[in-house]
């Protein structure tokens, strides 16, 4: 008899446009398979045409150029394992609640991206001395609830991040052309930043001498610490140090005896140096074993911890990651009105029966 | 160009054993397609063999008999559209939280079941006068966290419910053999009761003169109103009157203007007579339009309500169903330690932007 096929699925947060998260508690592969890669869209999927294979670079450059997909394939390339995390990941865990897609912990995936460094393209176009930001526009566009009209998805990077040798114009994921839903044919990949920066279906790059203020730069993807004013607003940029307990599941019932707790940890500032586990709701902490994914600074780190559940009762298990810059996950995430950058301890309640 | 395939998936609550809920907010078909039918298992899937096609009826009967699957196909049959709802549906919404699978609203599905009425089989075996309950055993078995040893999944029905003409030994779902994960080849179908009563992979039926006290009868599927004692325990039986707002989604952002709110309502006691909607958190209620699924007393009822979102702001939308017996959804579900029978108002928070 054929064994039954039991597998997890993406978790649907919205269908129009498609927003689905990875079943993060049920996948342990280092490289997220395509069918479990989270999908985050502001708009309907764009139509792919011959135009989609062209990438124009213009604005404050010395020699505006248009690259064809084939040109990029012929350039020197880099391959990097990169965590992509939606800045709204875990939005559903903020208290007070915030509006927007109620992501739990699965708006995160890891893949091997290959592409040409953006800086190599910009060497060919040249930059004017007063250049300040670079704007990246995708082929996807549509309406917003708060403004009239239609908008392209467009984001900018400061010059320094754009010129980092690991900021890529990617054309491959996991050794194959980028899947359509992940930005085929060309996607900007910005390691260490939340993934709104990694613009999908990339169509144009424009160098500007001012600050870009499109709505996906200056309205969304901004931390607003106050509920009713814009005081203290700050752009969303690097990924906060973070971890998740993948197993055991929250509110699950376990037998007494040995259990392996495990999960992942990641950061946009340096690399993970430590993951600690508490079994008693944060009173005492012990070190987990950590296993860095080899040879790459932008990948997540696996952690595990063997717990000999001593006796019946209720337990609150927490994980807390530290990175090489010294950032540590906080007990409470910094609340902000649009719900970005959540990184409080991962917490799981279990009952030993 | 082929349009992108965008579809919802089952929501994984646990994989070993498989427990996945329907993406209830994203399906509006009256008959739940097989790939979206929720899956609730206590144990690994049983192996199907020739034995699986035999159904024995014994215990306090006059003539113990074994029926073959083919015998059942030849008997007079009934076809009924039935809501199956896990008694733990919405367990994740209880406050204080309770342990167990954290079902949200999707542990519910509707299908067209065909089978032979159990009472016709029992006419052939006869019953002794002192018969009190009938025990149904499935082929699935395994361990529990709280007791040593292995257990079959077994449940009993009082004689009156077992002899109801609509209690079926089903062999078909939606015009085809029952899918393996839904109990192939034979499943007991008990309309109006929570679905733990509808035993999958049915292997034996035993008439007894006492009360059956297996762990899935007397430990699980019991309402325990107190956290730390068993005082006031009551068996889980009929489905509570209930409704769900499928759209809009909780914590979503809407434009001003017209929106269709819609969902389903169902009950195990009679049929749905009214669904009311509140936009202001339960202060004022208005009637929704309801559309009974034709010709069947055990199916769910669709409801819809057109809302002209008047102005920007935050709104708390609620639905409340009433059935023909007079039961009304309560504002708060009756808390119980194992989290069964949740049926508080369905509540959705939206922001009009």
Distance between the termini of chain A: 34 Å
Return residue spans of chain A where pLDDT drops below 50 for at least 5 consecutive residues: none
- Structural class of the helices, strands and pairings of chain A? mainly beta
Q: How many domains make up the coordinates of chain A?
A: 2
Greatest contact between two chains: A-B, 43 and 43 residues
Count of helical stretches of chain A: 4
Query: Which term fits the overall shape of chain A?
Result: globular
Strands of the largest sheet of chain A, in order across it?
5-4-13-8-9
The CATH homologous superfamily of the largest domain in chain A corresponds to Oxidoreductase, molybdopterin-binding domain
Rg of chain A (CA only): 21 Å
Protein name (chains A, B): Sulfite oxidase
Cofactor (chains A, B): Mo-molybdopterin
Domain Oxidoreductase molybdopterin-binding (chains A, B): 42-215
Domain Moybdenum cofactor oxidoreductase dimerisation (chains A, B): 237-352
Short description:
The structure is a homodimer. Chain A is mostly beta strands and about 350 residues long.
Written account of the structure:
With 353 residues, chain A is mostly beta strands. Chain A folds into two domains: 11-220, Oxidoreductase, molybdopterin-binding domain (Sulfite Oxidase, Chain A, domain 2, Alpha-Beta Complex), CATH 3.90.420; 242-352, Immunoglobulin-like (Sandwich), CATH 2.60.40.650. Helix content of chain A is 6%, strand content 39%. Chain A has helices spanning 69-73, 118-125, 159-162, 215-218; strands at residues 11-14, 19-21, 39-40, 54-59, 65-68, 78-85, 108-117, 133-143, 150-158, 168-173, 176-177, 187-189, 202-208, 222-223, 234-235, 242-247, 252-254, 257-266, 272-278, 286-287, 289-292, 301-309, 313-323, 346-352. In chain A, the strands form six sheets. Chain A has a five-stranded mixed beta sheet with strand order 5-4-13-8-9. In chain A, a hairpin with a 5-residue loop joins strand 4 and strand 5 (65-68). The longest helix of chain A is centred in the middle third of the chain and has 8 residues, at 118-125. Chain A is globular, with a radius of gyration of 21 Å. The first copy, chain A, starts with 10 loop residues before the first strand and ends with a strand. The mean pLDDT of chain A is 97. Chain A binds chain B through residues 1, 4, 6-16, 18, 20, 23, 25-26, 45, 47-49, 92, 97-100, 102, 145-146, 180-181, 249-255, 349-351, 353, and chain B through 1, 4, 6-16, 18, 20, 23, 25-26, 45, 47-49, 92, 97-100, 102, 145-146, 180-181, 249-255, 349-351, 353.
